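We emphasize that the prediction below concerns an isolated chain of 264 residues; any contacts that depend on oligomerization or on bound cofactors are therefore not represented. The input was used exactly as deposited, without trimming of termini.
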Amino acid sequence: MYDFNYHRPHSVADAVKLFRQSDDAMYLAGGHTLIPSMKVRLRAPTDLIDLAAIPGLDGISEESGNLVIGAFTRHDAVATSEVVRRAIPALNILAGGIGDAQVRNRGTIGGSVANNDPAADYPAALLALNATVRTDRREISAAEFSTGMFETALEEDEMIQSIAFPLVEAATYVKFPNPASRYAMVGVFMVRQGGEVRVAITGAASGVFRCTDMETALAADFSASALENIKLDVHAMNDDMHASAEYRAHLCVVMAKQALSKFS
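Result of the prediction step, given as a token string:
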């Protein structure tokens, strides 16, 4: 590690002010990506702004047809919340499968969403549920939020305050996890709302994406047989030491069928 300035502001306004006054600042939420990156010097901020002391950034509630989760809400709180279980139980399942108990008790939904890891779980939920990311200055739709691998529409000093997930008729999430990291090698978040089906896939490509071919097929026939002829573009898939592009393309269809089996 190296020298840096540590700040612990008590308001969003103070945090943003500190960020703007610093040479190269970063916000700290759960820190499960940032701190290891700093240890190996992949990240070298001059100032670390810890958001833990800012009131009002956590909590879970239902508001006007939305499930609203504060940015500093821990994964374990989402996994065990009865409010979430009544509103969108697929989010309980998703959060309960993140990392291990230590990660779930320290990691935050806002930190995960802002980091936008291409194998993270929450980005699939945002995209499939048409969520809205609420920041200190605006609202960003999920469709516009992710702009690439570890890239988002957030401005440099912008801070996520909460995420609003619209309530839906039915939703589920399944993933094939990397056995070491528990990140998704392929994760599928599927939503059924009236005659519409939305399918968001994480872990398979350079970023989360909607699989429109699956959505069209399932809207016409909501059954596993509708997916038999679905072929994903192998060239768009990740190809690494954990799985080949061909394997991931095939796994997307397999996991989508598993997701279908969760609907009653």
